Amino acid sequence: MAKIADLVFDQTGHVPAIEVVLGTYAFAFQVFGDFAGYSFIAMGVARLLGFDLMVNFLFPYFVTNPRDFWRHWHISLSSWLRDYLYIPLGGARHGEAKTYRNLLITMFLGGLWHGAAWTFGIWGIYQGLVLSVHRFYRSLYPQYEGRTPPVLLQVIKVVLMFQFTCLGWLIFRANSLEQLKDFLVSLGHFDVHSEKTFYLATQIIFFGVFFLIVQAIQKSKKSLMAVPNLPGFMPWAFYLLMFYLLVVFGEFGGKQFIYFQF
What we know:
Layout: H1 2-9, H2 17-48, H3 66-72, H4 75-89, H5 96-113, H6 118-140, H7 151-173, H8 177-187, H9 197-221, H10 234-249
């Protein structure tokens, strides 16, 4: 996924819209696999030593709204932002206007935590705006709060939320404000084909579907250990497939985890 994302984001100027979309999807899978991956490695090593660490990622791409996204993505950071920024600022205790202000300030500072770059600050503001819009929508339609929608509607909401999340990842991954502007302009041109379309799409489908299957199994079983606990030979089939993917497509050039820079 990193190779695919880099192929798109290393370009400058006009990039076809389909490449921007596919490159952003690739980065969405990359950043999850990268960050959640080493969080799970840390949990596993800690457990070998007799410690239980908190779960830091819990199916964030299967949520239906931005509030739940931040309850399932980088839980240690979002919890810290809530406890040490949002609540001390006043949280939701002093009216709606100040609640929206607190959301924006908290997420803006959360964006700057990643680095002193305009793209990170804009990403934080974007997250604060999305959370505020969702909160405003909930206030208009409180009767839908807590209801479980029909399966088809649930799937549609998950897909839509993933698009909002990926727009945030586009802002986050952009190398500069200039590239961000160029990519957003490209999205408005609706180019649905380029020379790289087939390559990018097949790679993302091949790896992304496997990732989604694993996550779907874990979510349906409500256990991150769902794959090892599958019956019969199925766990070993997964292990052999993962080993094959690592050997054939693995990155062995010393590429660092994304979050090592933060």
